[in-house]
């Protein structure tokens, strides 16, 4: 997936370089801007600026895009940008407004570049004054884009505080500072108070961002990732700013890694670290593009909608199948119950006249229907009832719903004659 990492202007990862020649009274990179009346309109109420010609700001990053933000003000001049020795500009940072009223002049995108190949890149911003009054440039914050894992993969984010067992400290650390401790993550911090005090952070993931404070009294420290070359960083700043990005590394590959930090001659502190690895995202991370861009995952939304429709269709189909099976079972049960009821088949010869009324029982026996003569030999499986002189022989199936105890049939089956059918 693509991830955006934001560096405030005070991050030690940003290098500010003043040229060898500096006119008297110049405002150098790193000078305090805390007295500026518009400082609160900048990100985190801080910015770094200069009026020195050819003063540069540089950043080495591993990613696919970068965006540099600053301000357009009445005393600003021109500047140029280069990425991997490819030049862009000059660009103007001038705005005809000497107040802080126009908010659109702050947190302005000074330069942006996307579509870079994933890997290490170097960006340099150079101040180019127009004249002695329009000679400023400032940097508010920088954001760069990098890829974590394969394209389309989700990133799992975890945060480990400085008090976690994944931080292994040597001697020479303090867990309290004189001022500003409540401004740190979870209210905890480790400050290196002895030279060469070190900490080893063990983690599993593809990228790490380490946060801590910068201050006027802080100094340099060394960082080593696994067996990579050592790099030197400087936590000294023109003011106290906690939770600042001190170190970042990506494209590490999955597995266990070790980040070792060692104090220089002064001091620095560590606050917490954020780890990224491929998997199911647990925390929201910035997507590609500069702040304010819409990073809605369209593919994920479409996939979710399609999956939901398929799920509903399956539920409906299963419900209909269940109803069909239930109706079928009910019909089978009804047929079994019905077939279990005796159904006598009675052959009734057709009579041309109704049975005599009021006959003596002996006389009634004479008029009682006699069964037809049986042929000699075995019966055939199906025998056709005889039909004498157009008489209708009817097999009447008598159906009675009876309890299990049985109820004897009452009455005599009625003979059906051709007269009855007229």
UniProtKB/TrEMBL annotation:
Report the protein name in the record.
Uncharacterized protein
Which residues fall in a compositionally biased region of kind Pro residues?
369-378
Question: What highest taxon heads this organism's lineage?
Answer: Eukaryota
Ranges annotated as spanning the membrane: 298-319
In this chain, the stretch annotated as Disordered covers: 349-422
Keywords (alphabetical) are:
Membrane, Transmembrane, Transmembrane helix
**Gene3D superfamilies noted in UniProt:** Galactose-binding domain-like, Single helix bin
């Amino acid at each position: 997936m693509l991830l955006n990492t934001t560096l405030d202007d005070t991050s030690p990862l940003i290098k500010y370089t003043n040229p060898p020649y500096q006119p008297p009274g110049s405002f150098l990179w790193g000078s305090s801007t805390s007295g500026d009346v518009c400082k609160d309109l900048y990100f985190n109420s801080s910015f770094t600026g200069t009026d020195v010609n050819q003063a540069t700001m540089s950043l080495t990053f591993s990613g696919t895009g970068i965006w540099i933000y600053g301000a357009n003000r009445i005393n600003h001049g021109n500047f140029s940008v280069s990425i991997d020795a490819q030049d862009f500009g000059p660009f103007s940072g001038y705005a005809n407004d000497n107040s802080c009223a126009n908010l659109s002049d702050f947190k302005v995108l000074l330069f942006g570049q996307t579509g870079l190949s994933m890997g290490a890149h170097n960006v340099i911003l150079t101040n180019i004054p127009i004249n002695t009054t329009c000679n400023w440039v400032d940097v508010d914050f920088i954001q760069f884009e990098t890829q974590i894992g394969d394209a389309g993969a989700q990133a799992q984010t975890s945060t480990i505080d400085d008090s976690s067992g994944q931080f292994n400290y040597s001697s020479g650390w303090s867990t309290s500072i004189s001022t500003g401790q409540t401004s740190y993550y979870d209210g905890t911090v480790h400050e290196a108070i002895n030279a060469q005090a070190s900490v080893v952070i063990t983690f599993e993931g593809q990228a790490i961002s380490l946060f801590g404070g910068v201050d006027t009294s802080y100094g340099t420290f060394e960082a080593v990732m696994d067996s990579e070359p050592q790099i030197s960083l400087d936590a000294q700043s023109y003011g106290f700013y906690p939770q600042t990005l001190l170190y970042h590394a990506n494209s590490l590959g999955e597995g266990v890694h070790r980040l070792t930090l060692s104090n220089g001659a002064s001091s620095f502190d560590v606050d917490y670290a954020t780890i990224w690895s491929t998997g199911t995202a647990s925390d929201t991370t910035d997507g590609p593009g500069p702040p304010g861009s819409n990073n809605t995952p369209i593919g994920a939304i479409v996939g979710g909608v399609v999956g939901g429709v398929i799920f509903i269709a399956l539920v409906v189909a299963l419900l209909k199948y269940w109803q069909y099976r239930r109706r079928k079972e009910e019909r089978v049960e009804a047929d079994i119950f019905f077939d279990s009821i005796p159904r006598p088949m009675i052959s009734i010869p057709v009579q041309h006249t109704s049975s005599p009324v009021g006959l003596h029982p002996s006389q009634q026996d004479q008029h009682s229907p006699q069964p037809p003569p049986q042929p000699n030999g075995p019966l055939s499986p199906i025998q056709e009832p005889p039909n004498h002189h157009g008489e209708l022989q009817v097999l009447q199936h008598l159906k009675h719903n009876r309890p299990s105890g049985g109820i004897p049939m009452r009455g005599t089956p009625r003979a059906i004659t051709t007269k009855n059918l007229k």
